[in-house]
Amino acid sequence: MKPTSKIIPLKNTEITGGFWADKQKLNREVTIHSVYDRFAETGRFEAFKLNWKEGEPNKPHIFWDSDVAKWLESAAYIIAKTPDPELEKIIDETVDLIDKNRWDDGYFNICYTLFEPEDRFTARYNHELYCAGHLMEAAVAYYYATGKDKFLKIMCDYADMIEKAFVTEKWAEFDSPGHEEIELALVKLYRATGEKRYLELSKYFVDVRGAEEDSYTQAHKPVREQDEAVGHSVRAVYLYSSMADLAAEYGDETLFNAADTLFDSMAKKMYITGGLGQTCVGEAFLGDYDLPETSSYCETCADIGYVLFAQRMSAVKPDRKYDDAAELALYNGFLCGLSLDGKGFFYDNSIEVDLIGINNPHDNRHRPFYPITQRLEVFSCSCCPPNVTRLIANIGEFACTENDGTLWLHHFMSGEFKGEGKAIRVETLYPENGKTEITCSGNFTLALRLPSWCRSYTLSGGKNATLKEDGFIYVDVTDGDVVEYTLDMPVRFVQANPKVRQCCGRVAVQRGPVVYCAEGVDNPLPLKGLYVDPKNGATLIEAPEYGVSAIELDGYIRPESDELYYDYDESFTPQKIKLIPYYAYANRGETDMLIWLTRK
Q1: Same domain for 448 and 566
Q2: Cβ atoms within 10 A of the Cβ of 21, count?
Q3: CA 138, CA 141: separation in Å to the nearest integer?
Q4: Which of 185, 406, 448, 520 is most buried, with most CB under 10 Å away?
Q5: CA distances in angstroms from 202 to 152, 171, 173, 190, listed in the order given
Q6: Domain limits for position 92
Q7: Which tens digits make up the pLDDT trace of 545-559?
Q8: What is the torsional sign of CA 403, 305, 62, 64?
Q9: Is residue 12 part of a domain?
Q10: 411 and 367, same structural domain?
């Protein structure tokens, strides 16, 4: 199969205003520096000097290389759009340390060099290849941002060494990475250098799976035979992303179809927020429709990987199902991982917060896990914060794909996006409202995603508009055409499949792609004592602090009672219920939170 389109790269995108411009400004001015400060305080950057001694604080951990690598990649994306000598200096100094302390054969890993130099590539689960992959991604990003190739050459040496260890000399003691990531990084390295051996090495790591009999790391079957998303959720979506990459590079329809089957499998394991990973036990998937709430896991990195996977799939074969899922994750599960002030993060993202349950030791005996209720600035395992910074800095790459005659607008964000012989300028306040204006340069077909949640729309400008089965409206445009595309965006009440036993008799509230929740700060407790009638409608409330409107419902509560059980009656008291975007919860102190409201 030949890929239908290709991603418009970061260098040809510019976010110019609106929701994502605000997030990028916060990321550039606050978040990237806050994460650096926390990583410096905890010894992560110092560890690259390889001078840690026993008895000193901040003993390096096996994944610290990757924490810093993602920060370096984030900073590179920022520099690509807004030159920053301070960030560039930090990157250059870190690259110099990698160069100074790498092995003669190109190997670099802080922990193995310090503690177990004789045990390189003997422990499948110890993140060596994962760390290497993130360093490769950072090197490619920095090369594209600045043209400097020192970091890139160092990582090419490392990739050459890995090829020897696993393919040509075969002295490594395992076959496939215990934590996927290098597979997609090697594809990026290939695209930056043109060296096909790196693409072939990625293919080797993907194709060799099935020998380990380990579903936790997706090595239980050959990838083309896998038909259910299982195991560690972050590992899974990174593997699936590389499958999409390789399907595109090799025209491998069988591999693409396997990835598509796995994508559909995740749709039965996904929270309404786009969150993936239903259990803390292994940070893993559970069965279909099994979506616990107070013990939900939903790691921020899993949502990021989900967005990466969806982006790649929709480039190979545009289909709104991929973009709808990515959008749900972007505006909910992913964005919840960052506080409104840009300094705090969730590692796991709760679907429900019940402080009585959390603080009740009797209740805790029966639950394996409660997500944290307030964001932290750094974690002992701090993979999520720099993953957040790199996605926001690179968000422009998720807007559009193109081929010779068509440009697809997958995600609605204000900006300028330049393809080959064609370009668009997009102006929108999305997701606050559904109006998007697109000014076109060149003669081509413009493809506009019609989200599955949208029941009606208006379109003007261009010619021959046609809605196709892939969920895109195709319209022919000529140079200078202005297309106005408006999605109807009412407040919607959503119910879950009855197989999701945790949500029976309840509804959630969405507007456009944004999921809403009730917090105890705004509403009487217990939140499960609130009742809503979807027929009552909803009122929008201006809330500039959130970036989108809040919502007020005409709801109900039951009269208070101290009785444990009592006869059912129809007594309800009117009660205004205030809802805020899910991604904005836990920014006003610790409080209860609920997405799924009881239906009257």
Answers
A1: no
A2: 16
A3: 5
A4: 185
A5: 17, 18, 18, 9
A6: 42-208
A7: 999 999 999 999 988
A8: positive
A9: no
A10: no
Which of 517, 493, 514 minimizes the C-alpha distance to 588?
A: 517
Q: Name the token pair of 475.
A: 């319209």
Residues 450, 324 share a domain: no
Please list the active-site residues: 283, 383
For the sheet containing 400-402, what is the strand order? 6-7, 400-402, 406-409, 444-449, 472-477, 463-467
Can you tell me the distance from the alpha carbon of 141 to that of 553, in angstroms, rounded to the nearest whole number? 46
Supply the angle between the helices 384-393 and 32-41 in degrees, to the nearest 10.
150
Encode pLDDT of 159-202 as tens digits.
999 999 999 999 999 999 999 999 999 999 999 999 999 999 99
Q: What is the total count of domains within the chain? A: 4
* Integer Cα distance of 349 and 300 in angstroms: 7
Together in a domain, 447 and 357? no
* pTM as predicted: 0.97
Q: Count of residues for the chain? A: 600
Distance CA 314, CA 492 (A): 26
Place of tokens 């072939």: 200
Same domain as 427, residue 351: no
Write out residues in the chain with pLDDT < 70, as ranges: 360-368
- Do residues 93 and 68 touch, judged by C-beta distance below 8 A? no
